[in-house]
Amino acid sequence: MLLDASYAIWGGAFATLLTLMTGVFVVRGVNHAKQIFKVYQEFSPDGPQPTIVQRDIENRALMFLMSQKTDSMLAALSKTIEQERQKLGVVVRNPSMTEGIDACEEPMPDISDRPPTDYEQILQMAQNGMNTSTIAGRLRLSEAEVSLVMRLNAA
After folding, report:
1. Which residues of 93-102 are buried (b: 16+ CB within 10 A; e: fewer)?
2. pLDDT over 70 at 78, yes or no
3. Would you say residue 103 has pLDDT above 70?
4. DSSP for residue 114
5. What average pLDDT does the segment 20-28 reach?
6. Helix or strand or coil: residue 95?
């Protein structure tokens, strides 16, 4: 009984495998026959040969279809971008070229508004006749730093 069930299972598996392999061979054979027929048509003397005008028309039609597809994709992209802008609640305007350039330029900082740097203070105090130790004490710097700045300015 068990042996009969085993034969039935293996026989079914074998039949399924044989059917699949036959199907694959049939499909491959049909595809191969189609390829042979196509090559035969291309090289047969009495087969239809496309002329240059026909090829040109086909190329133009293909280009037209591609441009239509591109235009539709760009329109969809533009619509999506506009929807996203509306979601953000931002109105984006198109500035002119000069406005765009002006918007990117940062104004020069006003020198009179900023406090003088330690370097500038050291030089100013030195010009007023203060010595290195007095300048270092007022600015809370080391005397070595103050003397270095004074020497660099003298060079």
Report:
1. eeeeeeeeee
2. yes
3. no
4. S
5. 80
6. coil
